[in-house]
């Protein structure tokens, strides 16, 4: 039997660990997509963004609750524009 996580639980962990304006998680079967809205994180290199977002979730990767995580990061300004253009679902 596969152990799975609720998307709300991932959101809670990330909100608690990081200074985020907004966070959205979608997915199932241990494969998740995360949208993070944060000026701070958006300024980092792509590698640093991934490390920052993966860090609070490492135990869940180890346990197999999360197998894959796709990350999209936006500054609040870019997120507003993205939503206006309706590019992100």
UniProtKB/TrEMBL annotation:
InterPro entries: BolA, BolA-like_sf, BolA/IbaG_stress_morph_reg
Pfam family, one: BolA
UniProt cross-references to Gene3D superfamilies, sorted A to Z: BolA-like
Family listed: Belongs to the BolA/IbaG family.
Name of the protein in question: BolA protein
Organism, scientific name: Mannheimia succiniciproducens (strain KCTC 0769BP / MBEL55E)
Gene that encodes it: bolA
């Amino acid at each position: 039997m596969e152990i799975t996580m609720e998307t709300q639980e991932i959101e809670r962990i990330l909100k608690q660990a990081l200074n985020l304006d907004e966070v959205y998680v979608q997915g199932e079967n241990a494969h998740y997509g995360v949208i993070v809205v944060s000026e701070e994180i958006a300024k980092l290199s792509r590698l640093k963004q991934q490390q920052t977002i993966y860090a609070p979730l490492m135990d869940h990767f180890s346990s197999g609750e999360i197998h894959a995580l796709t990350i999209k990061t936006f500054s609040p300004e870019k997120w507003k524009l993205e939503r206006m253009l309706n590019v992100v679902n």
